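User: My collaborator sent over this chain with a note saying "see what the structure looks like." That's all I know about it. Can you take a look?
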Amino acid sequence: MLFGIYPGSAVGDDSGGLAGGPPDDPARIDHALDLLQGRPGRPFLVRAYLAFDDTTRLGPGAAHPTATPGDAARHAVRGRRLDLVAQYHSASGDVDGYCTFVRELVDQYGSVTETLQITEEPDVTTLPTLDGYYPGVQDAIVRGVAAAKQRARELGHTHLRVGFNTTPLFGPAASFATDLADRGGTTFTAELDYIGLDFFPDVFRPIAAAELDRAVIGLLGHHRDTVLAPAGLGHLPLHITEHGWPTGPDRPPHRQAEVVETIVEALAAHAHRLNLAGYTHFALRDADTSRPGLFHRFGLTTDDYTPKPAFHTYRNLVTRHSRDTAAHSTAQSAPAPA
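Assistant: Without extra context I'll predict from the sequence alone. Here is the result:
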């Protein structure tokens, strides 16, 4: 599988705000990324977010800095590439402007980007930090995918893969992908390179430890068979675009490591059958380790970049299951953090 991580610390919470804390340290981010990647040149994604809204400046000379982490392109070195999330936050429903924004992102970041995600959790309609809150989001996906692919072809960025993501979909919400495919037609579905899924098992609803791996594989089977296949998207690779498990009161660090290992091992074991191509962890660093809430402690490290046990666990999983492992079976793992 292709692995990656969101190396920022800002986290959207369940009230529509952002959980924050000490500023990110780019040098420490680079050091942690080097350790997780394990070997220079090993494919590894750096997830970064930026958003279009009604104040976004477009046109010649416009630059679009990543919101979190800042200056994300600096981390796309030594074989790492960006997993860039182009969020749609237009209160006026300016889909034309969003498509221009997407084309400009391909201009600015296309050479260092592996995956370009069009919108973020567009099925979630209740939180202003997520894209389903804004009018025209389905049109933004359909037209944004087309704009990104067209501009990538014009620039010769044949490596750039374009997709969209959702959260797990059940009941009436399971029709989201079908509705989207109906809106965009076969032209839209043919342009898609992957589908993303953000999921956080045993975070917001408890799952018994003994049932966690089966619950995860059951969920992914449901998503492919019940959500994607009826939409004509069942053939596309599935990327886990966000997954994490926060520490805190009654959530010990050793359990975080166990959850990460259980889930990634389950994904790796079923990757071929479920066409799972990627896993991106959320997140590298706590937003604020001094705060007890869920959203402040998603990191594999504390807010001063001290590794938790799960950091070492994830590093070992990357070495064990990266898509280049077979070709580099003699590669040495990275040294342990000081």
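A starting point for your reply to your collaborator: The mean pLDDT is 95.
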